[in-house]
């Protein structure tokens, strides 16, 4: 048996194309791939059942793709990450592995797991190699003049683009070549994992798994919607955004592949050219920004407010209001339609993520962590960095967040972004008979009709309450 066998440990990089960890492993010797099935850990992290199902379906597709490269995909069953170092060491001993390769993950638990694995493997003489395959630039490589991690997105973006103007922007790597066949078979990927229900067939059909599906989506978006993205991206009734987030979160497609595709459609430009392409590139850079924040400020992983003083906000304990928000029964149609979209599809339009998050944290004055958790438990694209970043932005507790006094009015957001009420009508059929004017805020006589509730909160006085709750907080440095 060859002593130079390499193990590629797959996590949120479920692809063969443009995968630095896979490329590094192939460069050093024959490769085996593994994925760790950790249901108890996933539950502790609030991973959604539809996301776990998407991972399993993606792994199945990937295993087929890997077979063509003669790389067997093995599974390691290890409910909690605390036990992974031992399980991985045993797996490596059994399969005579010389080195383990992976793409780094940046949250605290993931880093601790990897550190413990690297130490355990070192004792067996097995080397550990981490690449940065899921970001555009390694965290720590885009810093302020005083060598700190940027807290303001626009400054981060400017510095990153300036660095690329010198070094060139990142390009996807060539597709790997097949290795010589190994005498080992791949493990079967289970259809389900304990504790995670299989989602509906309708939900699964919205998110076909695998690289081919992801690349087809990327191509279709680049061909038909990218150039209009700036004008269409806020309209939830239209397919104006890429809907690539589940694929990016699971790493079925890489940020580099997306960036490259947008650049190609924009005559090679990143910051100039077509407005739609530039705007989409900026959204990809938001993803990158929050990953650098996650890596640079570990408190984000621990669900601490980025702005320490906002830990003192007196959030309301209002379980009934929280339940109404979760189930789409607040009496504010755009919020309810959004929340029902989430429950039915595992996804929510970005504009509505902001609207529903602001409604929860400002109008209902409920702690952003309750909303962050609910999103994570239901999103197929749930991703700690982006979800935490989005929630803390909306709650005005985060980096570069919305100022606390800028509170979206959900009714005006609805009138502006769903002017004909198509989106609301789709998700709230009980309101489908209302005209385009009254559907955003049915008059009181219409409440109760077909069981649609009256608003659970007055938008104007609750806005004032939220502003007051934030207004007199001490400055961060005043807190011991
Ligand atoms: C409260 C809240 C929670 C969120 N939770 C998540 C989450 O768990 N996972 C997640 O991937 N995104 C999250 N986002 C960001 C954003 O809403 C989604 O990435 C986007 O709606 C996905 O749709 P799309 O693929 O069509 O995006 P597109 O508009 O096509 O954008 C392309 C890609 O850029 C990235 N992106 C776009 N906007 C953002 C953003 N504001 N922050 C970070 N990345 C962005 C995503 O990877 C997205 O797939 C959240 C935003 C908010 C306000």
How would you summarize this macromolecular structure in one to three sentences?
By secondary structure, the chain is an alpha/beta fold. Helices cover 47% and strands 6% of the residues. It contains 20 helices and five strands.
How would you characterize the overall build of this protein?
The protein is α/β, with parallel strands linked by helices. It has 3 domains: 5-130, HUPs (Rossmann fold, 3-Layer(aba) Sandwich), CATH 3.40.50.620; 142-171 and 211-296, Serine Threonine Protein Phosphatase 5, Tetratricopeptide repeat (Alpha Horseshoe), CATH 1.25.40; 308-478, DNA Cyclobutane Dipyrimidine Photolyase, subunit A, domain 3 (Orthogonal Bundle), CATH 1.10.579.10. The protein is 47% helix and 6% strand. The protein has a 5-stranded parallel β-sheet, with helices on both faces. It is globular, with a radius of gyration of 23 Å. The termini are far apart. The mean pLDDT is 95. Bound molecules: flavin-adenine dinucleotide (FAD). Flavin-adenine dinucleotide is lined by residues 233, 241-245, 248-249, 283-284, 286-287, 290, 350, 353-354, 357, 375, 379, 381-383, 386-387, 389-391, 394.
